[in-house]
Amino acid sequence: MSDTQRPVLSLAAGYHLRAKPMCDGRVRLKSFELKAEPFENDGEGHEQFLAGNYDTGEFSLANYCALKSRGKPYVAIPAFPNRKFRHSYIFVPENSSLKEPAQLKGKKVGIPSWLNTCGLWVRGILSDEYGVKANDIHWIMPRPNKVELSLPAGTRLDVVPSERSLAERMLQGEFDAIIVPDFPEEKGWRRLLADAKSVEQESFRRTGIFPTSHAITFHSSYLQKHPSAAQEMFDACVEAKNLALRDDADATYSNFAWNRQMWEEQQAVLGSDPWKFGIKGNEKPLNALIRYAEEQGLLAKKVTIADLFVQLDEPS
Hints:
Layout: E1 8-14, H1 20-23, E2 33-39, H2 42-50, E3 56-60, H3 61-68, E4 74-77, E5 90-93, E6 108-110, H4 117-130, E7 138-141, E8 156-159, H5 166-171, E9 177-179, E10 189-191, H6 196-207, E11 214-219, H7 220-225, H8 229-248, H9 259-270, H10 283-295, H11 305-308
Parallel strand pairs: 1-2, 1-3, 6-7, 6-9, 7-8
Antiparallel strand pairs: 3-11, 4-11, 5-9, 5-10
Helix pairs in contact: 4-10
């Protein structure tokens, strides 16, 4: 207990505007003392959560699905603070002859891990939208998966360790392309899809899917001791997200000179709340993610949305 006699609820948060109000004290919990720490490195935040150093954390959905299907003691709430359209995250050398996804067949592609959620989405998109199956590509990753998986028949996945980044290895000719969750710091790459933004907008209009990468996840033992923490954390996440959306609408808040025009374009394509939390309204991306996890061998047994998320009162 803290000196306020309220239980501490620690959160390994992402480093973004949707978590900032929980980290800077603008958003508080009624029955818990929230201690939220933003991690600029997602992987470090995930490891700190798994190590038990935080009661809850913003956590990889691909990893969570794999662990949950194996009965591991974690439980998520339907708060999805990290979402990105993923057609943009296939990178090739700027002088590459590759111009379209179908050309990835037979090529070497570097990935951080088979359990990386960005890679999960991109492999699903390649299969659904371009007919490029997992076993059409030679996948290479720098370290073994931490969970034993049953990959699709014929999938070639090799572990080739290196201290160099995947982008550096690609630029030195080791890979034809890489799929990574953040833009490489190195120079000399380009997106495989030159007009990825238009492709992503068309994909959203057609599918209604804005891919989600993370969910707020608890150690099950914490919710067994403090079951009300799930709803309070969810409500806090919604409040923080709504504050971030309000800030986005303020043209003086952002460092982007044309922020208002970007805001208007996003409203026109995605609506007023593309970061919607809760199950309702997120069934399409969640069901797609679960299907991809099953197709790509991440699951030890089938899971459903109801298996993955605590049922909560959601905003109307």
